[in-house]
Design goal:
With about 260 residues, the protein is of the alpha/beta class. Helix content is about 40%, strand content about 15%. About 40% of the residues are buried. Bound molecules: NADP nicotinamide-adenine-dinucleotide phosphate (NAP). Keywords: Oxidoreductase.
Length: about 260
């Protein structure tokens, strides 16, 4: 019997949902969370024939709710072998000086506080699994490379990278692996959320190029989590072939 359990945050859309499908295909048991209950229920129905699925409506920003949800996991869904810290968002793709403070707080509360809330709650279960367990954190190229409008989003993803590396130091000897997966441009609901629901802006960003898909990233997550126990990928930065860096911006006097 395959009793490997993957715990995915943000399973209602994009990378998280594709990752749930990928692990289900391989017969893992799934713990799926997110705020949109209707989507969790739909996904559970879809995957029920393939895998055992436990769903829980959860806002990762709420530390007490996260701890209670993990404490209440049914026996069949522990210990956890892989935690995919995927829930996250970007907001306000505009200059820092124009952003409302609430948007910065929402990104920090979700991408930083939420991620540590879940990590803290699930860590004992991962330690119980020991060798072969893994934490896969969703960082971003924005955590390493600045761009206009990236302000707090990029900073939260830099946190994800450093937190992942620091966790590795403390988990040395436990067998628990930690990876920061840092995707570049990928077409999900990410831009729709970032632009406050502007479908035209989202379509425009991805038009005429070939972004990564949610399935591309799900495949990377699955790969990292199923490598032999003695291999730890520290950081995996993945871009579409048609995306690369650009020149520095220089402010010049008018000609
Ligand atoms: N798409 C990209 O280009 C890209 C690139 C690099 C990194 N990333 C990162 O990849 C991760 C997934 O993004 P995605 O592209 O798949 O975007 P997405 O399609 O918008 O999915 C984001 C997921 O996060 C969940 N979420 C957001 N806030 C939450 C909260 N407070 N509590 C619980 N769940 C929450 C959402 O679920 P609910 O709304 O149902 O709660 C949703 O399932 C994020 O961390 C993002 O920063 C994305």
């Amino acid at each position: 019997m395959n009793n490997k359990v993957v715990f995915i945050t943000g399973a209602t859309s994009g990378f998280g949902r594709a990752t749930a499908r990928r692990f289900a295909q391989a017969g893992w048991s799934l713990v799926l969370s997110g705020r949109r209950t209707d989507r969790l229920e739909e996904l559970k129905k879809e995957l029920a024939g393939q895998a055992a699925v436990h769903i829980a409506t959860l806002d990762v920003r709420d530390a007490d709710a996260v701890a209670a949800m993990v404490a209440a996991l049914p026996a069949a869904f522990r210990p956890v072998r892989c935690l995919v810290n995927n829930a996250g968002l970007a907001l306000a793709p505009i200059p820092a000086q124009k952003v409302v403070l609430k948007d910065w707080h929402t990104m920090i509360d979700t991408n930083v506080t939420g991620l540590v809330n879940v990590t803290h709650a699930v860590l004992p279960s991962l330690l119980e699994t020991g060798a072969g367990a893994s934490i896969v954190n969703l960082g971003s190229v924005a955590g390493s490379w600045p761009y206009p409008g990236g302000h707090v989003y990029g900073a939260t993803k830099a946190f994800v990278q450093q937190f992942s590396y620091n966790l590795r130091c403390d988990l040395q000897g436990t067998g628990v692996r930690v990876t920061d997966i840092a995707p570049g441009m990928a077409e999900t609901e990410f831009t729709l959320v970032r632009t406050g629901g502007d479908q035209a802006a989202s379509d425009k960003l991805y038009r005429g190029t070939t972004p990564l898909t949610a399935e591309d990233i799900a495949e990377q997550i699955f790969y990292v989590a199923t490598l032999p126990d003695h291999i730890n990928i520290n950081r995996l930065e993945v871009m579409p072939t048609r995306q690369a860096w650009s020149a520095f911006a220089i402010d010049r006097d008018p000609a």
